[in-house]
Amino acid sequence: MRSWPERLVVLLAPILFVAALLTFERVALSPFLPPPLDLVASVLLAALGIVIFTLVILRRLDAAQERVVRQNRQLAALDEASIVIASELSLDRVLQRITDIVRDLSGARYAALGVLGQDGYLTDLISSGLTPEERARIGQLPRNHGILGTMLREGRPVRVSDVSREPARSGFPPNHPRMKKLMGVPIVSGNTIIGNLYLADKLDDSEFTDDDERLIVLLAAHAAVAIENARLHEQVQKLAAYEERTRIARELHDGTIQSIYAVTLILEDAADLLASDPVAARARLDEAIDALNGVITELRGYISDLRSRLAPSSLTEMLADLIALHRRNTQMDIEFSAEGQFDADAELSWQIIQLAREALANIARHAGASKVWIQLADDGEHLTLRVTDNGRGFDPTATRSQGYGLRNMRERVAALGGSVTIESTPGEGTSLIFSIPIPQGAHP
Predict the structure, then answer these.
(1) CATH for 315-437, among 2.40.30.10, 3.30.160.150, 3.30.1300.10, 3.30.565.10?
(2) How confident is the model at residue 400 (pLDDT cuts 50, 70, 90)?
């Protein structure tokens, strides 16, 4: 906000400027002009002053509008990155979207995001601006030498106007596109550097700016959250698997193995009696058989209990959990209804959940919707998932409308032998209908 003295100067400046012009006209011109012309000169000079200040104000307004538009785009991009992190489980997709966003908003020709492993070397490199063929020709991942290696070791942003003149450069690998200007920042979690995010060469050949650096720092923070979330999820999964193996081993040792050991004692006793008392030995053998049948029954019950423990929640419960999570993350109004048996196996249920997740993420990113309706139906032969929003809609026949999300959903449904129907009109919302055949024998 401007202070009151600054505002006063802004208000008085045009008046003082016009007054100075009129004074100049009175002092320097009026003595040499006849009465009608001196008045005309005064009017012209006043008009000139007004025009000059109008042009200055318009230029400042245009610059302010450009800043507002740029800031709005950046805020929308940061909002989208937050939604992607909250709604997408695939780390690669989250990092790819962040990399695409930073390249688009900065006007860079190339962008890349590297993830470091425990050994300090790159384990993954997400690129934007390269075709898959160009990316494949580059070959192995960089080894953190040169300028980017210095950035990672020192933990600070770098901005280079000409890579070829930098003493720390290590050159480009074969088939790597030549780059001149470079800007990068480390991706930091706590006090640990876990990756890097960098841009190369603006499309208009201009220099990278402080605004570009602020943007890339913000998106690097989003990338850090996504990477740490993925690592925590992996650790939780490993811990859960370890705890489950420990529990299984303990229950087998304390129950089934002890029962089997008791059977071996009965059999040893029967072997000792076999020569001296065949009748008693036969009775002990019958006892061992009964005990083994008991062990088999115990194992069957244990396996049944294990299956029930490992079985996922029902499809409707998983959908309800996904919707509740999406409501919290996006504040979107979502209604859910279900009709049918929903005896889908675990694999089909997982695929349905992934479709719903992708559809909701698409709506959050692109539709501008305030409400979503999700309907699940099972008619005994097909599972049908219908996702409808009240957003801006689009023309489904336009090639540009077939974005990555829709293509991914089409491919997933096609792999299941199903079909996708899109109903949408610009300004009137969108409905996605996924129809997937239920495998034979899934219903009783």
Answers:
(1) 3.30.565.10
(2) low
